[in-house]
Write a structure and sequence with these properties.
Layout lengths: L14 H9 L3 E7 L8 H15 L1 H4 L2 E7 L7 H13 L3 E4 L8 H14 L22 E5 L2 E5 L1 H8 L6 H13 L2 H7 L7 E4 L2 E4 L8 E2 L6 E2 L1
Parallel strand pairs: 1-2, 2-3, 5-6
Antiparallel strand pairs: 4-5, 6-7, 8-9
Length: 226
């Protein structure tokens, strides 16, 4: 859940929605940036997120959890990874160094998850009188245009952006499927968007291209298709 951040238990970002989603999980895989590639301390981040789980729901924090230490390909000194392992395992968690880029360490992680899933009972929820599968409110999306820039706003769009890692090809494909499912291309065309016009989704901008069926995201993700 990439949108789960500090302050989520108080509703920061889309905190409540993400935490309710996590509640349905039997087992949590806590993915850490073990290399601290953004200048952050992975051990500190580990406790920040677990603290958010505890504040929101002690039952959620008590779920079985496996730690996946990602981006090990970026760690130059082995003692850094070993020290992180020592700290995490000292708290009673299983620790698996992985690299999602190369696939290193993924199979041992999945084997451990599978074993725990077999030993963990299903999550039970109190029955409710009505379950809303999907509700399409009027004016679900708001499109604003200013000098060739088309801004799309709406809760579903905001949630989609928060949950998308634009540097991850798998996440980008999910984004494209959601984009097409929500019919945003058709809405933009209805508002008069032209080839090359800029689309802004809560700060994420890319050039509209009707020919490719998708568009290029500028900036850090330049050259990648959404």
């Amino acid at each position: 859940i990439p949108g789960l951040i500090e302050g989520a238990s108080e509703g920061t970002g889309l905190g409540y929605e993400f935490l309710r989603h996590v509640e349905r999980s039997k087992v949590l895989i806590h993915v850490l940036d073990a290399a601290g590639s953004e200048g952050r301390d992975p051990y500190k981040d580990f406790h920040i997120i677990n603290n958010e789980l505890e504040i929101y729901s002690p039952a959620l924090a008590a779920k079985k959890q496996i730690v996946a230490a990602n981006k090990i390909d970026l760690i130059a000194e082995s003692n850094i990874l070993q020290e992180l392992r020592r700290k995490i395992e000292a708290e009673g968690y299983q620790f698996f160094p992985i690299c999602t880029l190369t696939g290193e360490g993924i199979n041992p992680l999945l084997d451990a998850v599978w074993k725990i899933l077999q030993e963990t009972p299903a999550v039970e929820f109190a029955p409710t009188e009505t379950t809303i599968i999907y509700e399409s409110p009027k004016n679900e999306f708001i499109i604003e245009q200013d000098q060739g820039v088309f801004s799309i706003k709406g809760k579903r769009v905001e949630k989609l952006i928060a949950m998308t890692d634009f540097d991850n090809p798998v996440s980008l494909r999910r984004f494209e499927r959601a984009w097409k499912f929500m019919g945003l291309d058709k809405l933009l065309k209805k508002e008069g968007i032209q080839e090359g016009d800029t689309v802004n989704l809560y700060g994420v901008e890319f050039s509209f291209s009707d020919k490719k069926g998708c568009s290029d995201i500028p900036g850090e993700s330049e050259g990648k298709s959404c």
